[in-house]
Amino acid sequence: MVATPIGNLADISERAIEALNTVDAILCEDTRVTAKLLLSRNIATPTRTLHDHNEQDRTPFLIEKLQDGARYAVVSDAGTPLVSDPGYRLVRAAIAAGIHVTAIPGPNAVVTALTLSGLPPLPFMFLGFPAPRSEARKTGFATLRAAEQAGLHSTLIWYEAPHRLIETLEDLIDVFGPEREAAVGRELTKRFEEMVRGTLTEVLEHFRTTAPRGEITLLIGPSAEDDSGAADLDTHLREALTTHSVKDAAALVAGIVKLPKRTVYARALELSRELKD
Prior knowledge:
By secondary structure, this protein is an alpha/beta fold. The chain is 47% helix and 13% strand.
């Protein structure tokens, strides 16, 4: 598993160059993208595609070749393989078959953005891409907000497409509030690298006036130390449970705290048992 530059081709390591020169073939998402990197380093190793649409079908063939002694390097279009990129199925199958798997570390947009964001670096949680549709996206965000109300305290990180960034920031504001600390890294390591920092509202206003372009990494900081969300949820539920059934209490409180009904219902069940005991 070979990490490749996330933008600046000079970021490739000597070990990565050696590996790409000495394997039998390079498995990549898009041979045209990888060709630019290989050309810059005069690497003539043949390339083969390995992407989300063919990885499952190609894995048995690749495992057979590996068992016969072939050596492959897996790369993504940019950054570290498997991190929101193909390769997971092949690695799992290789491990199960007892085939040696190793990694050559290197650039990664998540860690790069985290170190530049000014947000707390530990703990952090990377969540891939948000759902493309607003309703599903808000549901995912609300689940995270519920986890915060249950004690999660972490910087949260996503990748996002530039044409969806504004809508995603709006949804984040709806769920996490306008004052949550945030940052957006754009075109990291490239000539027009940009890191926008501020509240979610401030970051949104920036991109409403400056159209987002290029590769996007989106971060929000952890909830405030004095966040009373968990206490508020329990207070509302205990009050509602004195006059309502568990189901009705959960439905009532879910509308107040803006959390998924199933999440509030699960907590209502726990509190109901505690009250009975």
